Amino acid sequence: MRTFSTVISSVFLAVLFATAGPAVADDTIKIGEINSYSAIPSFTEPYRKGWQLALDEINAAGGVDGKKLEVISKDDGGKPADAVTAANELVASDGVQMLAGTFFSNIGLAVSDYAKQKKIFFLAAEPLTDAITLSKGNRYTFRLRPGTYEQAAMLADEAAKLPAKKWATIAPNYEYGQSAVAAFKKLLSAKRPDIQWVGEQWPPQGKIDAGAVAEAIAKTEPDAIFNVTFGGDLVKLVREGETRGLFKDRAVVSVLAGEPEYLDPLKDETPVGWIVTGYPWNAVTIPDHAAFLKAYQAKYNDYPRLGSVVGYAMLKSAAAILAKAKSTDSEKLVEAAEGIRVDTPFGPITFRAIDHQSTLGAFVGKTALKDGKGVMVDVTYHDGAAYLPSDADVKAQRPQN
Amino acid sequence: MSILVVEELGKTYSGFQAVRNVSFALEAGEMLALIGPNGAGKSTCFNMIDGQLAPTTGRIAIFGKSTAGMTPGDIWRLGVGRTFQVAATFASMTVAENVQMALISHHAARWLTLRWAARRHVAEAEHLLDLVGMADQGQRSCGELAYGDLKRLELAIALANDPKLLLMDEPAAGMAPRERHAVMDLTARIARQRGIGVLFTEHDMDVVFGHADRVLVLNRGTLIAEGAPHAVRANAEVQAVYLGAGSLYRTHT
Amino acid sequence: MSFYFVQFVTGLASASSLFLVASGLSIIFGVTRVVNFAHGAFYMLGAYIGYTLIDRLGAGVGFWPAIGLSAFAVAAIGTLIEMLLLRRIYDAPELFQLLATFAVALVVEDLALLIWGPSDLLGPRAPGFKGAIDLLGQPFPTYDLLLIALAPLVLALIWLIFRRTTWGVLVRAATQDREMVAALGVNQKWLFTSVFALGVFLAGLGGALELPRQAANHTMDLQVITEALVVVVIGGLGSVPGTFLAAIIVSELNAFGILVFPKISIVLVFLVMAIVLIVRPWGLLGRAEAAARTASGAIISRWRPFGAPGRIAAALAVAFAALLPIAAGNYFVGVATEVLIFMLYAASLHFLLAGGGLASFGHAAYFGLGSYGAAIALKSFGLGMETAIVAGIVLGLVGALVFGWFCVRLSGVYFAMLTLAFAQIAWSIAYQWTDVTGGDNGIIGVWPSAWAASPARFYWLTLALSAGSIALLRAITFSPFGYALRALRDSTLRAETIGIERRRVQWMGFVIAGGFAALAGALYAFLKGSVFPDNISISLSIDGLVMVLLGGVGTVSGGVVGAAIYRSLSIWVISHTDYSRLVLGALIIVLVVMFPKGLVGAFEAWRSARTGARLQGQSP
Q1: C478 Cβ contact list (under 8 Å, min separation 6)
Q2: Are residues A193 and A270 in the same domain?
Q3: What is the dotted CATH code of the domain comprising B1-79+166-253?
Q4: Which of A252, B9, B70, C508 has its CA 20 to 30 A from that of B233?
Q5: In the predicted model, is pLDDT for residue A8 greater than 50?
Q6: What are B53-82's pLDDT values in tens digits?
Q7: Together in a domain, A124 and A188
């Protein structure tokens, strides 16, 4: 037993040393960053490169308010509970002044609720769920990327112009897919009361039985299809659908499919003529983007994905908020962030005070094949501001306290 | 009244008749041996009597009650003890705890959750171990016992519910010859003292003829002879069966 | 009409693809009794290696050789792993091999990321099978027809190998009776190695053959492993034709099920498995399992309660732990709280698995029900934290009562798989019933009452409840009921013969374990402030098994130590490295090889050896 107690006490001592309060240096500002690096590397790797580029630029330009910016980055393994652990480590142990990041909606919500409970500023980068700014919105959480509703709204605008009357939907069976379909249906039906919804399929995320789904949709004989699947599911659906003639003479509207993360793996099998949201990195004409593209390619010898832009804009926004607040106090940060204007590769954006959503937009265009690769053509940038819910809608949905 | 009555017992496995039309009875205090060559249906009979197998035909009554539909546990609760061909004990418990487990079950205390099991029925367990000659081994781990001692332990477990009928499948298998007789003597003594009827199977004919009061001979699922040991030994049909199998007079397995 | 025919044939193609990977799992499972969790990883490797080889050899003439070569390459890797890792632990307690293959799967996941990068890799279509043919007026992919032809061919080949070759006869004999085959002088080691190699070969082949259907990606392994396992179990363990039949049933039910219920896919296979196992406890074509091999190899050690020194040490440890918040910061206190919760979760599973010999693969169900019960009571019914925790326990108990009633009718692997099925059904309810559970967006805002809100206070609350519960579980283990449960584990035959009602006792054990897991889940909800379907996930169930196995199934409560070590390690690793799965997997492999009895088991063996040596020294 004596050895046992010795072991316990030495462990205890080690713990004491390891957890001795973080040394707070006055000359740096720390941002805690959390994302699903191991769970969805195809998106988060370019994203990491994006914020690292921004970090270099910010510090090269003298940091924020004369202080060096430091990012402490953690992996959440794709699990909300682990994200909360990471958030707690960043806040309680590393002493960060602000949280940022996250990809999956449920992780974004978990961290946002943690931020609310601990009164810590949280800049959500990627999670698409509308709940994070509306029904589950809170004072300390801001979101950068356009949410599901906005993306669906942009596509519904385009879809309304099509002659198609009978529509079918294919979406992954989880909140993102459900919200996207619900929003798209609502908006499109509002614009085009003559439209009929003839079929729907809800394959489990990552496990689509593409042949069976394609046949089941074809059986309903739609004029057009609204697709929400992405990543590996999208690849399977495209292959099966093309071979089985599902997309022949049918319009397809697909969320996210124009993002290089999801478009590039399709290579020469990219379906032609789909209406998609995405990021045509080599066709963007926004002036700020040219500088970003040049710097990114110089640093990584690779082209940016959408994740890169999100990561880059996320850190630029964080720096702008910190600079405006001239403080790391959470309340001051919130006040500074409300209504702040930030320059991003997609042009200037504003974080709305009413729902803490940025006005970052997305590109809508058509897929095409060029030199054996998938690209977007007929691209237009849709400013997020035009698709955000009205003040009345926000007030109805967002907790007001 | 006979404590065990078996009438026209039969068992069919997917068309194969393992046991057919077996009838016999067992009296209190009697040692009855069930013998026969390998595959004669001894184990099938045993497993039907102790409730592990449901008979295809026939009836079994223990202490005048039909056992149809009863589980081995139900039959045990009637007051039946059982030992197995390969000793079945609880390896993670001590010798005493094995017996205590049986006592706990017998005294209907097996659902208690906030008492120490090891403190229950200590004296009773000691007494039973003493009875089988293992008084000094109570605190040994069951996993480290010699095989003969495991068999004795099984006997102690089987006696825990104060049975009036003991079913013993090859009680002496796997033991040295001297030990076999010691165990069988012990069994016979306890049986007579307590008025327990014992039904046992055995391969070793020395054991059978040395300890049984009466012998039943099974061959191919049918009872071919029944009677006192010397009469059965002299029976021509039995001799034919065993000479064919060549093992009636073998002394070691 | 033609639509239904095409849909049927489409279902057959999915079935073939599923069968190709599941057949290997079935073979390995049937012969070595190893639940090969790395099977999905080998399948994924098959796809990645196939992709690279096609790239090197050229998409035209190189395609088919590349597919074959990649299957052989994967088989070679599998053989190596079997020889270096699994061989060392065949004698370890049942399920211990699961821990090793789980670790291999973790390592492979990160290695694939390091080697092939993060992006999905789309290989070319198969030469000669790029297009479609006309099937009753509908275009149908020719490659799917190829798969439909291939599956029965593989089935026939496997059948021939096992029925018509000496090797096959020996393997089947080894499946029936290992000792006998060993006694015949057959080298069982090589028999097992070759079986493992064959199974892994099929996994690699299945993966490579997926290239024309989908891009090689990092989630392929997880997509396939549970589904393959489920198909193997539905078909009946060790029955390859059963696996084939099950693959067809599952795929056809899915192909037609989605026409009526477009959301059914997410839970379908588990529903089918639950129904099949309830109706046919050994799967469609399986036979009653041979008696569990508790006796072979694993020496069952005697269990005894703590003596005075043990109790003092435990009390000291708790007292010591209670001092932690004075010295450590909030983060460390939070981590320690989490570790305590997992110690309780592991202890509850340990009670069932080690104390009752009942390996639950779905213990997270009760953890998750506890989480959801607490969260719903708090958020939807406005109850306080204290009542909410009780509500969580009640929901967990109810779940365990209902699911347990069915589960204890089975035993061994079938019991394990039925628990898994119920856990997945509970998971899909949490995932789908958005109005009540919030779906995958979960329930947030589940924070403790004010009096327990500070990290230190919540830690103390958790410490009191966890330590108390673990002590209670130990007390139950050594109570008459605990003895009865353990008696059934040691010898079901003997226990039933002394009037211990197997089903009722095991059912009650299942409910007790479920109740304590639910308490852990409820505490976890309040620690994290949120509840998600993750709390019922397969990975949480597996984590539980890993913790118990790491601690040692042969011990009274090694799971508690296993949990403390595993959870601390994983939190630390994920916080400090980019390749947490690689590091964690490698660590588990090292531990598995060094301590095949588990950590506590090894400690006990060491201590008893030392005591033994000292005793011998005293009496020369």
Answers
A1: B116, B117, B118, C303, C305
A2: yes
A3: 3.40.50.300
A4: B9
A5: no
A6: 999 999 999 999 999 999 999 999 999 999
A7: no
Helix (H, G, I), strand (E, B) or coil at B58: strand
User: Is the four-CA dihedral C421, C425, C430, C432 of positive or negative sign?
Assistant: positive
Query: Cα-flanking dihedrals φ and ψ of residue A380, to 5°?
Result: -130, 145
Q: Are residues A183 and A243 in the same domain?
A: yes
C494, C503, C505: best to mutate for the B interface, most B CBs within 10 A: C494
Touching subunits of B (3+ CB pairs, under 8 Å) are: C
- Whole-model pTM: value is 0.90
Q: With an 8 Å Cβ cutoff, are A19 and C331 in contact?
A: yes
**Domain residues of chain B, as ranges?**
1-79+166-253, 93-162
Predicted pLDDT of residue C619: 38
- Does A373 map to a domain? yes
A6 at the C interface (CB within 8 A)?
no
Residue A24 touches partner C, C-beta closer than 8 Å = no
Q: Are residues A251 and A319 in the same domain?
A: no
Lowest-pLDDT choice from A15-29, C159-173, C266-280, C496-510: A15-29
Determine the distance in angstroms separating the CA of B203 from the nearest CA of chain C, rounded to an integer.
22
Residue C33 contacts B, CB cutoff 8 Å? no
Closest CA to C435 of C397, C488, C379: C379
Residue A20 is predicted with a pLDDT of 45
Q: Which of A9, A75, A261 sits opposite C578 (nearest CB)?
A: A75
Is the residue at A15 inside a domain? no
Are residues C275 and C337 located together in one domain of the fold?
A: no
For residue C477, give the chain B residue with the closest CA. B113
Nearest Cα of chain B lies from the Cα of C473 at a distance, in angstroms, of 10
> C291 — contact with chain B (CB < 8 Å)?
no
pLDDT at residue C207, rounded to an integer: 95
Q: Which pLDDT belongs to residue A4?
A: 46
Tell me the shortest Cα–Cα distance from A344 to chain C, in angstroms.
25
pLDDT of residue A312: 97
Q: Which residue of B has its CA nearest to C487?
A: B90
Q: What is the ipTM of this complex?
A: 0.90
What domain range includes position A68? 28-146+285-360
3-state secondary structure of B52: coil
A residues 189-218 closer than 8 Å to C (CB): 200-204, 206-207, 209-213, 215-216
Q: pLDDT at position C294, please?
A: 43
Domain extent at residue C555: 332-608
Q: Exposed (0-12), middle (13-18) or buried (19+): which is A5, by Cβ within 10 Å?
A: middle
Q: Are A42 and C440 an interchain contact pair (Cβ–Cβ within 8 Å)?
A: no
Query: Which residues are paired to B80 by β-bridges?
Result: B165
Task: Name the band, by pLDDT with cuts 50, 70 and 90, for residue A251.
Answer: very high
Return the structure tokens found at C229.
Answer: 């396992």
C415: left (phi over 0), alpha (psi -120 to 50) or beta: alpha
3-state secondary structure of A133: coil
pLDDT in tens, A310-359: 999 999 999 999 999 999 999 999 999 999 999 999 999 999 999 999 99
- Helix, strand, or coil here: B20? strand
All residues of chain B having their beta carbon less than 8 Å from the beta carbon of residue C501 are 71, 73
Q: Where are the beta strands (DSSP E) in A26-124?
A: 28-35, 68-75, 98-101, 122-124
- A291 and A275 fall within a common domain: no
**Final residue in a domain of this structure, among C234, C263, C279:** C279
Whether residue A122 is found in the same domain as residue A200? no
Q: Region C499-522: what's the mean pLDDT?
A: 96
Q: Which residues in chain C are closer than 8 Å to B143, comparing Cβ atoms? A: 299-302
How much is the average pLDDT of A284-302?
Answer: 94
Residue A341: which CATH number?
Answer: 3.40.50.2300
User: How many angstroms away from the CA of B133 is the closest CA of chain C?
Assistant: 21
Q: Is the same domain home to A154 and A64?
A: no
Residues of C in contact with B161 (CB under 8 A): 498-499
Residue in A with minimal Cα distance to C139? A244
10 Å Cβ neighbour count for A332?
Answer: 16
Asked if C487 reaches chain B (Cβ–Cβ under 8 Å), the answer is yes
Q: Give the number of domains in chain A.
A: 2
Asked whether residue A129 is assigned to any structural domain, the reply reads yes
- In C398-476, the DSSP E strands lie at 443-444
Q: What is the pLDDT of residues A139-159, one digit of tens each?
A: 999 999 999 999 999 999 999
Touching chains, A (3+ CB pairs < 8 A): C
